[in-house]
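User: Second chain of the day. Same drill as before.
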Amino acid sequence: MNIHHNWRRAVQLVSLLAFLWLFLQTEYRGADQLAYPVSLLFRLDPLALLAALFSPGQSPLLSLWPAALLLLLTLIFGRFFCGWLCPLGTVIDLGGAPLRRKASAFAGWPAFKYYLLLALVFAAIGGLQLFGLFDPLSIFLRTLTLTINPLWNFIANGAFNWLYQADIPLVSPLADLIYPFFRDYLLSFQPLLFFLGLLTAIVFLIILALERWQPRFWCRSICPLGALFGLCARHSLLQRTPQTQCPDCALCATQCRMGAQHACPSGGTECIRCLDCLDYCPQQRVSFQFGKPTTVPFNLKRRTLLTASAGGVLLAPLMAAAPVSGRLRNDLIRPPGAVAENEFLQRCIRCGECMKVCIGNALQPDFVRGGVFSLWSPVVVARLGYCEYNCTLCGQVCPTGAIRLLPREEKRQTKIGLAVIDQNRCLPYARGEECLVCEEHCPTGKKAIVFDAKIIEQGNQRLARLQPRVVKDLCIGCGICETRCPVAGQSAIVIVSEGESRAPSWLTDRGY
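Assistant: Same format as last time:
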């Protein structure tokens, strides 16, 4: 009987549904205030805690107390989060099942994840934070935000639109009844479009495809969060009783998805406490017991440890050398409340929460604007969407303080950039045509876009035209003028990083 297996699967599904519910609730629902639990997933993330711990400035460590509590529970129960609660682990178990081989003699590289964790820690100490690229919780939420959620909204909205137009008896009236529930709880405030959605999906599919090579390959060999839990679980109070009298079947060893029995008779740092081995054993010889912590063998090569540490340290100087192109670009616009660029890159764990809640769909995952280490961090792409004047949601969900929570009045005055008019494309300048769109949409109390009356010559006529002008001291760079500009292709008014409230990165790099 698979009693423990069934109980674990039930807990995994409930946990996954809970995380999905929190994800769906991390959404604008008519009020500029989100409930605290919506950001709980990353308050539970020990790698987010490390990112905040090694970052300069004032860290929001108190808000990350659930992550510290999770590490404390791991000291007691072992690496249970990976086996029972991790949403990526649950998806791997379910989605990778069709790919999984019955048996594999490949032992994997269980030590690699510890070397990777060590390299990431030393890189973070040196000022280069890369936890978010390998964090399983970031990968899970990033995939939901950038790939699955937009696809879900596209399919659901398309289905409702088709049902309304088809006017099918009984079915279409039923769609009218259930649509308000979908609109209020399951769908986004507006249709979403994100860059790097395909790249994000490919990374996620590769993680699933690794199941063909070995069950839970990601968890066994790569996951730095699993490595951190493994270090904490090394002396956990709950341990598996070593089995040395079972030469007859060894099912607990051959069927273990983590290869924990091969690593250590008691499971050691690789055991995720899934308890499946209790069901495999026909003689019920396997058991887990609380007791005095025992020393678990931990075979890591000293030379490789030194290499991983040195690699992390040597990566850090690239932080200053590689993003030169990002510093020279004027289209690198960060969200309102973002800290100075170097500190921002050290804090941001690329979770995608801020992009999920952005009302105007302005926040997009970066690719090269901020340099090679800016991948998947949020940038404002005003041609696609704008920063809502009264919205403070991105600061509410950021778990590491990369985006500070701003009071609404302060947010309204925070400059993230400056609007610049391209007179070669602007209709009143280039063609002598009337256009008032940018001024009409400007949200500031006193308009940051005004008009100057000009007399222009058009053919043989002298015509009076209103030509827009940006008031530099009033513009906050929200980008709605660029979003709404009717000129096809590149907008006639664009947002540049000039005048942003935070310190320019080239100044902070030099200690000013």
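The first strand starts at residue 238 and ends at 240.

User: Great, on to the next one.
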